[in-house]
Amino acid sequence: MPAYKTLQDLPDINGKTVILRADLNVPTDGKEVTDMTRIDRVKPTIDALLEKGAKIKILSHFGRPKGQVNPDYSLEFLAPILSKAWDHDVAFDDENAQIILLENTRFHEGEEANDMALAKRWADLGDIYVNDAFSVSHRAHASTESIAKCLPSYAGLLMEQELTALEKALTTPERPVTAIVGGAKISTKLDLLNNLIKKVDHLILGGGMANTFVAAKGYDVGASLCENDMLDTARDIMDNADKNGCLIVLPTDFIVAKEFKAHAQSLNVLIEEVPADYMALDVGPKTIMRIEDIIQKSKTIVWNGPMGAFEIAPFDNATIEIAEYVANFTRLGDIVSVAGGGDTVSAMAHAGVKDDLSYLSSAGGAFLEWLEGKTLPGVAALSS
Ligand code: AMP
């Protein structure tokens, strides 16, 4: 386990001020918040700090104002929304409240430049730093990295929960470990694939990216999405997987169609039978059976990316079936399942299993960088 401290390690903080880095970069349509997940997920840390009698000053970014003060990106509108969601008054930039929301960190040029002088100014506003923003911990910014060097620093409950789930999945997993990787292209997932083949026992490939691997094995994938300039790279990944004792599992059949539109006429074909004018848009039932057999024999599942073009039926079938299968084994306590990154959260929501995996990470880029085996500066700073 890394040596970061958690809220359990806090000294007496009654009357002290905690600088809390949260991720309140919430989606909005104008000024209404359209998804409260990020706000709700910080509540346990807020409650824990309040219970200990601390005053809380919250740092968060919002959008991309690029180091300029821009009223369109002010966090002021969030204070009443937070007050309601957290059941406690949250004041905006006002010294006299117990919970104070500070203005958008990215109004300062020094934030993204990881400027120590800016970090010190923020650190001077409090006594202790708590980082609960795993989703921005892949960024070395003043509010995630430099500030941790200025104050005693602790991981918040959400950060701790996320790190514990990720460690269970890849650092100290119960084996066999199976990674399921789908999505559109391999070009955006090279680091991830190269890291996973060193860590997992099975690597199941689906989605558009599997087409490139199938083509690299000499099959004709017709009009499917395929990165022809990546065929050698795909072969290298397969060779390296072999050397590392990682079994790569490719589709053996596809659902193909001439058009990518709702309820387009589709066919189930073997990988050697893809007609020239058809696209592989999902993996087929034989492949699903093989994948389910491997899941059944696994103890840990790590999942990123849909198995097909899941936004349009019927090409969402494999993603839904496999997600339900993973959720079922998770509910029975037979496997640990961790999913996240890119479109994976919406794919799991579409499959109706959002709350049924051991951990569904909403961290996006940070989750992917962790899958790539990279050190996350915001996490490393808590351990130093
Ligand atoms: P990513 O963000 O790389 O995880 O990719 C997700 C996207 O991949 C989704 O928009 C899917 O529609 C798309 N996708 C998955 N499978 C296929 C496929 N077989 N052909 C084309 N697009 C696909």
Features:
384 residues; alpha/beta; Rossmann fold; 2 domains; 6-stranded parallel sheet; 17 strands; elongated; binds adenosine monophosphate
Brief digest:
The protein is of the alpha/beta class. Helices cover 35% and strands 17% of the residues.
Write up what this structure looks like.
This protein has 384 residues and is an alpha/beta fold. It has 2 domains: 7-159, Phosphoglycerate kinase, N-terminal domain (Rossmann fold, 3-Layer(aba) Sandwich), CATH 3.40.50; 173-371, Rossmann fold, CATH 3.40.50.1260. The protein has 13 helices and 17 strands. It has helices spanning 37-51, 78-86, 109-112, 116-123, 157-171, 190-199, 207-216, 231-243, 285-297, 317-331, 344-350, 365-371, 377-383, and strands at residues 17-21, 28-29, 32-33, 55-59, 90-92, 99-101, 128-131, 153-155, 177-181, 202-205, 247-249, 253-257, 266-270, 279-283, 300-304, 336-340, 359-361. It has a 6-stranded parallel sheet with strand order 5-6-4-1-7-8, with helices on both faces. A hairpin with a 2-residue loop joins strand 2 (28-29) and strand 3 (32-33). Helix 7 packs across helix 8 (231-243) and helix 9 packs parallel to helix 10 (317-331). The longest helix has 15 residues, at 37-51. The chain is elongated and about 70 Å long. It starts with 16 loop residues before the first strand and ends with a helix. The mean pLDDT is 96. It binds adenosine monophosphate (AMP). Adenosine monophosphate (AMP) is lined by residues 182-184, 188, 207-208, 225, 280-281, 305-306, 308-311, 342-343.
